[in-house]
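ok so for the tutorial part 2 we go from a plain amino acid sequence to predicted structure tokens. step 1 is just haveing the sequence, like this:
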Amino acid sequence: MGLSKLDNLYRQVILDHSEHPHHHGQLADATNDIEMRNPTCGDVLELQVQLDGDTIKDIAFGGSGCTISQASASMMTDAVLNKSVTQAENMVEVFSELIVGDKPVDSSILGDAAVLEGVKQFPARIKCATLAWKALHKALNSEDHTAEIGDLHAHAPKEDESHDRN
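step 2 — the prediction. this is what the tokens look like for a chain of 166 residues:
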């Protein structure tokens, strides 16, 4: 497959997840929840997780944001559903290294989310892509299983942070 066809395929996967997000909504019986914001472009993510012991039994997200943040949240929920907390945490680490790191990683465990690797070429989009993954980490690790409204991770783009909503 040619490079331009592959690029178009990746774009289509991202657009499909953004326009038809998986696990979008709310859980009536969430055990862990969080709301996080990306002040750079206004993304808002509400993440709810239902744990059954050490397993992510159900997961849902809501909020609003750009194409990248919504697609990443959809892909993340697909990837971690029915995984153990330990497996999900490993996926968060792999995703973070894929997007902001410089070491090669085995991204096959991420499912569709592996296509977001190209975001590292656009530093202003890193917060958009990692918002849902950081929210999951905080929701699973905070003592009361919630996080402060407005919490956001420390990864900050080094270049111009402005970008459009798509």
